[in-house]
Amino acid sequence: MNQAPNARRLRLPLTWLGLLPFVTFVVLFLVLPTMHIVIGAFQTREGAFTLQNIIDLNSGTIPSSYWISIKISVASASLGCLIGFAMAAAVVFGTVPRWIKSPLMTFSGVASNFAGVPLAFAFLATFGPVGLVTIFLRNNFGIVLQRDLGFSILSFWGLTITYLFFQIPLMILIITPALEGLRREWREAAEVLGATALQYWRMVALPILAPSILGTFALLFANAFGAVATAIALTGSSLNIVPIQLYAQIRGDVLGNPHLGYAMAFGMIVITAIANILYIWLRVRAERWLK
């Protein structure tokens, strides 16, 4: 009679055993590094507590680097939402052949995680000074991208377009289930009441999809704002954004201050955390509508 309760008590830890590798990974590579950054942001080189690192975030070129990073994140998130929504809507509601959906979703799953040095190299090889498209336009049409169109892959719009490679697929992955959740009865009811297709989208579909769209925008913003490897590999020091300044401070140059770098990383954590919290909140609201 006493063996059954003991067996039940032993069963609970075993059911959670499969989560142990994940929990270990999160603690070692997310929680502990984040705590180290937060603590280091409020310390001097000698380890004493200070607020000077946080105050110094308002000095030099740091505020402008945050502003440029925010503008790039907003631009890439806006274009990613707009283009990704149009592509997902074309697959779900449009006349696009149904067989395209599966390859598109598969490619989106891969491309949304394709970043860093490989992505930077791909765009440099395509739109760089001696890139494939650059040479093709110059040799066949006499068009020099930077001289005639004012475009450089090492500029604001160059980095924004590079980010779109993973922003658009991420938007497609997230918004497609929301579009599929729109019930046919809602459209039929709108048509019975005399609503046009434009009125249905403006007064029914888009208000329902608004939490999903805004939540995905917040996620794309955080995704672009926290992208480090792609920005450093693509632009080097030619663009004054937070990840590049952070890299210079943490690297420990002669004028580098690692603890100021921790403070800059702490500021990035706060901004991305706000964006992710907003995404989770809006996602919960969207799921209530689509249930």
TrEMBL record:
InterPro entries xref list: MetI-like (IPR000515), MetI-like_sf (IPR035906)
Chief location bin: membrane
Membrane-spanning intervals of the chain: 20-42, 72-94, 114-137, 149-179, 199-221, 228-248, 260-282
Subcellular location: Cell membrane
Gene3D superfamilies assigned to the protein according to its UniProt record, in alphabetical order: MetI-like (1.10.3720.10)
Annotated protein name in UniProt: ABC transporter permease
Cellular component GO terms, alphabetical: plasma membrane
UniProt organism field: Ciceribacter naphthalenivorans
Keyword Glycoprotein attributed: no
Keywords for this protein: Cell membrane, Membrane, Transmembrane, Transmembrane helix, Transport
Topology of the protein relative to the lipid bilayer: Multi-pass membrane protein
Pfam annotation, one family: BPD_transp_1
One record GO biological process: transmembrane transport
Family according to the record: Belongs to the binding-protein-dependent transport system permease family. CysTW subfamily.
The ABC transmembrane type-1 domain, residue ranges: 66-279
